[in-house]
Give the backbone structure.
Amino acid sequence: MLTTALEIPATLDGIDADWLTAALSTRYPGVEVTAMHRGRLIAGTGTKLRVLLEYNEAGHAAGLPTTMWVKGGFDGVHNDIMAGGNFAEAIFFKQVAPSIDANVPHCYFAATEGPAGRSVVLLEDLLNRNVTFGRATQPMSVDTVRAALDLQASYHATWWDRDSELLDGVSTGAPWLRGAIMHLLEKPNWDELVTRRAEIIPAPLRDRDRVVAASEAWFEWEKGGVHTLLHGDPHIGNWYFERDGRPGLLDWQVVNRGVFTHDVTYLMVSALTVTDNRNHGEELLKYYLERLAAYGVTSVPTFDEAHLAHRRDIMHGFWWAVTPSTMQPEDICWATTERYAAAAHDLGMLEALESV
């Protein structure tokens, strides 16, 4: 278990120059943060604060950046619902990230007080690399999705049907997610949001009882099969792009071990327009399977096996239909819900889960 003797603040008021000095000096001895200034605050599925930092000579010698992001659960909503995600992300950056050949943000400090306690990470400010960030209102091109699938195949292949002490603390199927999703599927939230977004959700998918039953089936189904390391939440908003177009993945709060299509489907459906997904979805799924083989996986699933899993894994993205605008902006929820609802209808998501 990832632990630290340094107390993790319950609120952002506890994040100051002294606390940052104590955190950073665990890895960079002698470093002192001589001044801290608060920058942008983002409250999403985790609380993220950009901090501007000044250092002593040891800090400069260590090459520490003048800005970074503090991320964790710093209010009641994020502590109560997303505590498991904060823990998982800290585990990923401390133990797992060094094992994979993938473009992810650099982490300067990661700690948690326990699987149900507070967690925090100090992450690279990607703005210093002049990257651009994915956004649901700006779909990816088919070629960009192909490059992102190659990245996924790379880290999936590294951990394909493998176990290691490096994965201690990385759960199977992100069990904490079940409680969060079932909370969102409760009738008051469902009635409000599905009614608001009804014009982009086909009628069968507005049947709450059927969707809840299919969600339960999904949580049970995804425990089986061959597992690999999953990002768990690779929708378009969690991708960034270097100046040369190379993709990278941020926000590892849902990292877990599970079925490969969890990641593949979440990327493809969230990132492509409805038309591009209809025209190129099968081609891209085949490409991903080819890349798995190229990265050394000898037990690559057949296309039919992958396609059935793909149909079922649309469910994980369909929950955007009940994501409140207090967690993600409404234009993002709308655009993503529209793509997932279309894919769920086109590919028979409910029917695929009802056959589990």
About this structure: The two ends are 34 Å apart (CA to CA). The chain is about 45% helix and 15% strand.
